[in-house]
Design goal:
Number of helices: 10
Distance between the termini: 14 Å
CATH superfamily: P-loop containing nucleotide triphosphate hydrolases
Number of domains: 1
Low-confidence stretches: 1-24, 26-59, 256-272
Largest sheet: 5 strands, parallel
CATH class: Alpha Beta
Helix content: 40-55%
Bound molecules: adenosine-5'-diphosphate, uridine-5'-diphosphate, magnesium ion
Oligomer: single chain
């Protein structure tokens, strides 16, 4: 009785309006975030069925999932697990930038200053690093973690790579939880201090949320709700939830035609 199914938390309505793409990284608030919906596993079944017949995995193009969420929302943690379990290549935009810094290049000097201030690195630098990493990985399923950070990033990616993502997984973590996690992350990062964290949170709200709104309006966003993102004592379940966000698509890629092959629901205590 104290348990309920939650697969449907991740299912969103189909696109209801056209894009509101901005041409540059502007500061603004947004109202098109995906809605929470009541349980409806039949909708999941329909979604799966509608995907199963399409060109699942046979095309030359890799399947692309953008993984977004505020700083400290758990993107990297979840991507590592998804990559292991589902055979995705995990490309972290932040790690690619930090790698460039570590290489001692001139570009790296510019990047480190921007990261210290919590600002966004010019699109052409990041997109080029991602494009090269995608090419080098030669993977047919790619998680792009922490990118695009703003509308300008998104537009540059779509122009240069010539693709939209297939889906966008969004970790909607409460701000206080993100701050707590970042302050405890202990990876010696130049940006995990309270001053920079405040700036990063502002940049996330004003520049990254519009990207999520945009993809939401195109029906691509699978949101992991605040409730589950903040459930730190249920880290494994949070992982299961990100599986659910991806499962219909992974099943499509694997060419599986039966729902019984998918992890389509999990049970959690009502209390969290
Ligand atoms: N569900 C969770 N509960 C508690 N701590 C978490 C959870 N997910 C991630 N963390 C921790 O929070 C910090 C930030 O996680 P990370 O995956 O690096 O987030 P992001 O990539 O979104 O910034 C890390 O120290 C990580 O171990
Ligand atoms: O596409 C990107 C990804 C990251 N960053 C910069 O790199 C920092 C760290 O990004 P990362 O994704 O590693 O941080 P996280 O959100 O995982 O804490 C960000 O604050 C930005 O300054 C950026 O400019 N563009
Ligand atoms: Mg990260």
């Amino acid at each position: 009785m104290w348990r309920r199914r939650l697969g449907a938390f991740l299912l969103r309505s189909p696109p209801s309006s056209s894009s509101t793409a901005a041409s540059s990284c502007q500061h603004r608030r947004h109202h098109l975030l995906p809605r929470e919906e009541p349980p409806a596993l039949n909708r999941l079944a329909r979604l799966f069925t509608s995907q199963a017949g399409s060109d699942g995995g046979n095309s030359q193009k890799p399947f692309i999932a953008f993984v977004l969420g505020g700083p400290g929302s758990g993107k990297g943690t979840q991507c590592t697990k998804i990559a292991l379990d589902f055979g995705f290549a995990h490309l972290s935009a932040g790690d690619l930038l930090r790698h460039e810094i570590a290489s001692g290049s001139e570009k790296g000097e510019l990047i480190v200053d921007i990261i210290k201030e919590g600002r966004i690195v010019p699109s052409e630098i990041t997109v080029e690093l991602i494009r090269k990493a995608m090419e080098a990985s030669n993977a047919n399923k790619v998680l792009i973690d922490g990118f695009p950070r703003c509308e300008e990033n998104r537009i540059a990616f779509e122009r240069i790579v010539g693709r939209e993502p297939d889906i966008v997984v969004f970790f909607d973590c409460p701000e206080d939880e993100m701050v707590k996690r970042l302050l405890g992350r202990n990876q010696g990062r130049v940006d995990d201090n309270i001053e920079t964290i405040k700036k990063r949170l502002k940049v996330f709200e004003s520049l990254n949320i519009p990207v999520i709104d945009y993809y939401s309006s195109r029906g691509k966003v699978r949101k992991v709700s605040k409730l589950f993102c903040s459930a730190h004592s249920y880290a494994n379940r949070t992982t299961s939830i990100s599986y659910i966000a991806l499962t219909p698509f992974v099943a499509k890629l694997n060419g599986k035609a039966s729902l019984s092959n998918c992890k389509i629901s999990i049970c959690i205590p009502e209390s969290i």
